[in-house]
């Protein structure tokens, strides 16, 4: 389902400890890493998303969905769907899911190619993965 909304799109790469955030430009052509947030409680996480949504004038949220390479749902997929359903109750903008398969692998390779390794890479990989999720979404909807 494609939304014909103008404005920036935000993507989340939800992890157990960290959440990668990426934001598009207003023309919805380019995704950029925005931040890595340490997971706290859903209430605190949702409040931080709402602050970014307001600050960046976000019109759509894309949530990375961890589907197995075989195309099936996993335990983590069910958790992400539940988290997003809870989040949907608190936001006024639409939420869409997008397959996040291999985005962390792509993000790690991208960071290595830029000679970013170790703790610096670990600190940024989730935001870079979110940017890959968002860029894949944007490219598919052009």
List key phrases describing it.
single chain; 142 residues; alpha/beta; 5-stranded mixed sheet; globular
Count of all domains: 1
The helix fraction, in percent, is 40-55%
Widest beta sheet: strand line-up: 3-2-1-4-5
Sequence of secondary-structure elements: EEEHEHEHH
Number of helices: 4
Strand content: 15-25%
Q: Write down how many β-strands occur, each being a DSSP E stretch of 2 or more residues.
A: 5
CATH class: Alpha Beta
Global mean pLDDT:
91
Main beta sheet: strand number and arrangement? 5 strands, mixed
Q: Which oligomeric form is depicted?
A: single chain
Task: Give Rg in angstroms.
Answer: 14 Å
General form = globular
CATH homologous superfamily caption: YqgF/RNase H-like domain
End-to-end Cα distance, whole Å, is 13 Å
Q: Which stretches of 5+ consecutive residues score pLDDT under 50? A: none
Output the structural class.
alpha/beta
CATH fold category name: Nucleotidyltransferase, domain 5
What is the CATH-assigned architecture? 2-Layer Sandwich
Q: Your description of this structure?
A:
This protein is α/β, with parallel strands linked by helices. The protein is built from four helices and five strands, in the order βββαβαβαα. It has a single domain, classed as 2-Layer Sandwich (Nucleotidyltransferase, domain 5). 44% of the residues lie in helices and 25% in strands. Strands 3-2-1-4-5 form a five-stranded mixed beta sheet, sandwiched between helices. α3 crosses α4. The longest helix is centred in the last third of the chain and has 23 residues, at 118-140.
């Amino acid at each position: 389902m494609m939304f014909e909304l103008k404005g920036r799109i935000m993507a989340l790469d939800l992890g157990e400890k960290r959440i990668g955030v990426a934001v598009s430009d207003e023309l919805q052509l380019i995704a950029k890493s925005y931040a890595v947030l340490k997971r706290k409680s859903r209430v605190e996480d949702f409040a931080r998303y709402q602050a970014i949504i307001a600050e960046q004038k976000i019109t759509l949220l894309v949530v990375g969905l961890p589907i197995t390479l075989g195309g099936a749902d996993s335990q983590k997929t069910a958790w992400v769907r539940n988290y997003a359903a809870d989040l949907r109750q608190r936001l006024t903008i639409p939420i869409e899911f997008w397959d996040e398969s291999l985005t962390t692998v792509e993000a790690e390779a991208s960071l290595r190619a830029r000679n970013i390794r170790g703790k610096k890479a670990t600190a940024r990989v989730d935001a870079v993965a979110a940017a890959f999720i968002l860029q894949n979404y944007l490219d598919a909807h052009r």
